[in-house]
Design a protein that fits this description.
This protein is mostly helical and 90 residues long. The protein is 98% helix and 0% strand.
Length: 90
Amino acid sequence: MHLVFIHLIVIISLQLAQEYLKVQTELALLIQRKNDLLKEFEIDEQNHQSSTRLYDEYNQLMEENESLKLLTQNLSKQVQQIRQIQQRRR
């Protein structure tokens, strides 16, 4: 009876050791997956910041473009007015 009890303890201990190794392996895999996800998140965050920066830069360039168009129109009008004045003087 005593040997059966010892044998049962050994079997249970082995099963517990196997379960412990299984849990440790799963834990290591989950930690690795967490680290991978964190890296992906950092890359996504950098891409988002880059996209936001590019969007802001695009908007700024569009505003500058509109300003330059208006300036060109105004300068063209001024040149036209100057030419008209010069033609009247002749």
